[in-house]
Structures are given as C-alpha cells and as structure tokens.
Amino acid sequence: MGKSKKDKIQNWIRANYKVLTILFGLLFILVNFLILRVIPGNHLAYSHMMYIPIVVLGSILGSYYGMGAGILAGLLVGPLTPWVFSSGEPQYWMDWLFRLLMMVFVGYIAGWFSRSYRIAREKISEIEYINPDTLLFNINYLNKNRLEVKKVYTIATLLIGNCDTICDVVGYATYYKFLLNIKEIFTRKYPGVIMVQTSIDHFWLIKPTFDFEQEVEDYVKHIHQASHVLGHHLFIDFAFGFTNRKHIHQNQISDYFIQSDQAAREAKKNHLASMIYSDLNTQKEFEYEILSDFKDALNNGQIYLMYQPKIDLKTRKPIGLEALIRWNHPTKKQIKPDQFIPSVENTNMIHEMTETVFRWSLEFQKKLNDKGIELPISINISTKNLYNKDFYNRMSKILKEYNIKPSLIELEITETILMENPEDSKLILDSFSNEGYRIAIDDFGKGYSSLAYIAQFPITTIKVDRFFTKQILINPTTQHIVKATIDLAKQLGYEVVIEGVEDVETADLMQKLGCQSAQGYLFMRPRGEDELITYLNQYRDELKKG
Ligand code: C2E
Ligand code: CA
Ligand code: CA
C-alpha cells in the first residue's frame, strides 16, 4: 500500500514537472530579489544566487527557459535594483547589462549541455537494448519490460534453419530486412508483443494471450508474409516452438523460453513449421511408454508379423512376400510401425527387433517349405542394423539354424544408408550378396540417390516408392520418371517392384511401362500366416520347391 502511495506521488511529479520547475524558478528569483532589498552592504554580491534557478531551468527545461530566466533575473538585479538603496542611485548600465548577458549565456549553456547529455544517454541505452545490425531488441530489453504478474503469456521461439544460405545468396541486408518485416507484422497484429533477437537465427516472442491455439497457425502465415523482401521471395526454412504460461517472477523471464526452445528444436528436427510444448510432452510420454513396453511385447505375442505378397504383373500371381511388423498394444490398440520403429531405432533394442523379425520370417519360410511352397521373403532392415559390426554374423547363425537357402531371403534397405556411409555399407552388403541373399532398395525415389550411384552396390531389386504410384495416372511427368527408372533399372539387371498399387488402371499402366512386379492393396493387404497359407496353396504348382 505504502509503495503505491509513493508511486502515485512520483507519477504526479513526473506528469507536472514542467510547471513545478517553472514555479520553483520564479519563486527562487523573486525571493532572491527580495533578499537583495533587505541585505545591507554590498548587496549585489548576492545576485550570484540567481545562477541557481537559471541553471535549473536551463538544464531541466532547455536553453529557451534558461535564457528566459537569465533575462528576468538580469533585469530584476539590474535596472530594477539601485546601486544605493538609500539614495536610489542606479547601477551603471554597462555593469548590469554585462551581468544580464552573462546570465542569459549561462541559461543557454545549461540547456545545451543537458541536451547533449540526454542525446548521449539515449544512444547508450539504444546500444544496451537494440542489436545495432538488425535493429531488433536484445535480451536486456526483455528483462527491462515489466510483465503483469498472474497474467498468461504466449511464449514462442522462432528458429531460422537456413539463415546461412539466405545471407550467402541475397546478403545480410535483405535478411535483416526480412527480420524487421517479421517484427513489423507482429507488432501491428498483436499489441503488447515483444520480439527479441538472441542470436542471428534465434528469436523469442512474448505476448499477452488471447487465443493461443488459433494464433499458432497465424504465426506461421506471418513468416510467409514477411518473406517478400526487396523484390525477393525468400525461401525460409523455419520452425516455431510454443508454450503458454502465467507470469510469476520478473527475474526468470529467459527461463520461460526453455520449453518453447525445446519445442522449436523438435519441430525443426521433424521438419514441421511449428510445435507446441504440451504436444511434445505427450509425444515424449508416448515414446517413453512404448519403449518401456516394447521388450515384453516382443516376447508375449503382442508383436507379430503380417505378410504382403509381391505379385508378378504379367501373370498376376505371387512371387514373393514382405514381412511387416505389427503391434497389438493392450491399451493403445494397434500401434503402427511408423509410430514405434523410429523410437526403437534410437535404442539398441532395434537389433533384437530385427533379429526376431528375421527369426520369425525364417520360421514361416520353413513352414511354407514343409508344405512344398518356396518363395522369397523380404525383411525390412533398419539403417542402425547395418552399422552394427556383428549383424552379418548373427544373421548367418540364425540362417544356419533353420537351414534355409539365402536366396529365399531379401533384405530391404533404404537409400539413406548408402549415401551416409557408402564404404561400410558396401562391405557388409557384399558379404550378404556373396552368401546369396537378395538385396532390395526400399522406397526408391524418396531420397536423392540415383541408380548410377546405387549401381556400385550389390543390389538385386528396386522398390519404387508409393509416392510415384499415387501420382502416375494424373501426372505425365511422373510417368516419364518412372518409365526412365524402369528402363535403366532393367538395363542394370535389377528387378523393379512398384509399391502401393491400389487399382487395376495403375497396375495395367505399370505393366505397360515395363515394370515386372508390384505390391499393394489391389492384390492383397498384409495378412497373417494362416490366411497366406490358404492363399498361396492356390498357386502351389507354380511355387513348388525347386
Ligand atoms: P514399407 O517397407 O515401405 O512397407 C510398405 C508399407 O506400405 C506397409 O505399411 C504396407 O502395409 C503399406 N502398403 C502396402 N500396400 C499398400 C497400398 O496399396 N496402399 C497403401 N496406402 N499402403 C500400402 P506398414 O506395414 O504400416 O509399414 C510401414 C513401414 O514400417 C514400412 O514401410 C517399413 O519401413 C516399416 N516396417 C514395417 N515392418 C518393419 C520391420 O519389421 N522392420 C523394420 N525395420 N521396419 C519395418
Ligand atoms: Ca519395405
Ligand atoms: Ca517401401
């Protein structure tokens, strides 16, 4: 309470300082003038006191007020004050005029000095709060601003992923202009927003919240809008991280951004435009839970394999199977492989998973062989497996256990590993290939490698990604790309499999383009062992052990 009274007085003084200073000056001059009249002896010595109100008015209100005070004081202690009171003898005019001019000059000088001082101070505080190159606020500015206690704020982190490239290509000035555009748009749209720059590609935004979730989408739009700069349309690879929270303590504002920073980094990693911290938390919890359940699930029947046949496009009969992992979680229902494999890949359980898939596929292969059926089974191999030096030996051991021909196993790997670590990949793939395994490049076309590059590895099969299959009927360019890929792959001696065929038209067109085989819902969705055995029994004669 006491503090607010003090604040009120301070505010009142601040609002009325001009009038108060003038009143003080006039009163001082007047009292000084009266003092001169009652003091005996050389009373004019006391006229020097007049310099006090002159300097005060000049320095607080500026040169004009200082000079005005100088004139008033000069006249009062000049022609209006006699040299000798008793006789009324006036001062010598040169004396008082010189004194008056001195007073005016001091009034002017006081104003000039205080103005120069103020400008210098402003410059210093500018450097204290603003980055000189981008003209955006820095962290000091954030701490200077008072947030309202208990009010909820939207906290956002903005990361610019391709800042180096933008600066290299269009120059720093254009990049800085883009940043100023962002600041301009945000301050226009959201009154009370503060944007600070913490490094060249890292920014914080804080604002009183209205509709937090809705704004997340708008923020992304604003960045696109800001990317039109000086005749360029910049490509901005950016990521936002969001969180919202109540303001409690002033001195922890930077800490409020820890969560939004994490969300932004996660968004960037996942190539998303934005991510909210609470989602990140839920995702992390989900990941943690599935990882703790995974090991048991692998052994208690929750995790199992389904198989999807690969079809010969000419005969439309099965010529292979792909093993696809499934997880029937007791509380989370069916978890898709895309939802748990990336997490498992970050742990060493990926080796156990692949080994188990390999073992189960061989068991099924054996079951089929016992029924007189023989066709290759494809197994998806994670990049992490190939980096494991022991991988080849362990697989060979299991293969011997089941006594299965390596030519009945196809390993599916993605292009990424061949690009990331070509030497090691070649060594390990050569050992598998020498043993007689088939090796397929999965999701071909999704990465950036070319067939010419892939040709150095011992490959037998190219599986063209579902992305092309979806486009082929509507996009003539895709048709040309697929045709060229098929032609070249065949010349290099590879089998070409097309993934994700869902309708007859696509299957017919692919066949016309020269593709030998296909997989897709048109022919069969991934199914369990029993259904597959019934299905394959129809083709028993073609699939006889040979
Ligand atoms: P993938 O290797 O490209 O497998 C093909 C995916 O496409 C499968 O999804 C399959 O069910 C689906 N699919 C097949 N035909 C069609 C179609 O006509 N239309 C559409 N829309 N989809 C079709 P699934 O089983 O969900 O597997 C997803 C991915 O998970 C696989 O993609 C593979 O990368 C990975 N994966 C599955 N099983 C394993 C495994 O045992 N080990 C490893 N490392 N990865 C696996
Ligand atoms: Ca696959
Ligand atoms: Ca695939």
Could you describe the 3D structure shown?
With 546 residues, this protein is an alpha/beta fold. 54% of the residues lie in helices and 17% in strands. The protein contains 22 helices and 16 strands. It has helices at 2-15, 17-38, 51-61, 63-76, 93-129, 139-144, 163-170, 172-189, 212-226, 257-269, 277-299, 337-345, 349-370, 383-387, 391-402, 415-420, 422-435, 451-454, 466-471, 476-491, 504-512, 529-537, and strands spanning 152-160, 194-199, 202-208, 228-229, 232-233, 238-246, 274-276, 303-312, 317-329, 333-335, 377-380, 409-414, 438-444, 461-464, 495-498, 517-518. The strands form three sheets. An eight-stranded mixed barrel has the order 8-9-11-12-13-14-15-16, surrounded by six helices. Strand 6 (238-246), helix 10 and strand 7 form a beta-alpha-beta unit. The longest helix has 37 residues, at 93-129. The chain is rod-shaped. It starts with a helix and ends in a 9-residue tail after the last helix. The model has no long low-confidence stretch (mean pLDDT 91). One calcium ion binds at residues 442-443, 463, 499. One calcium ion is lined by residues 322, 380, 412, 442.
Question: Could you name the key traits of this structure?
Answer:
8-stranded mixed β-barrel; 5-stranded mixed beta sheet; 17% strand; rod-shaped; binds ligand C2E; binds calcium ion
Low-confidence stretches: none
Main sheet: strands, sense, barrel: 8 strands, mixed, barrel
* Quaternary structure type: single chain
Helical fraction equals 40-55%
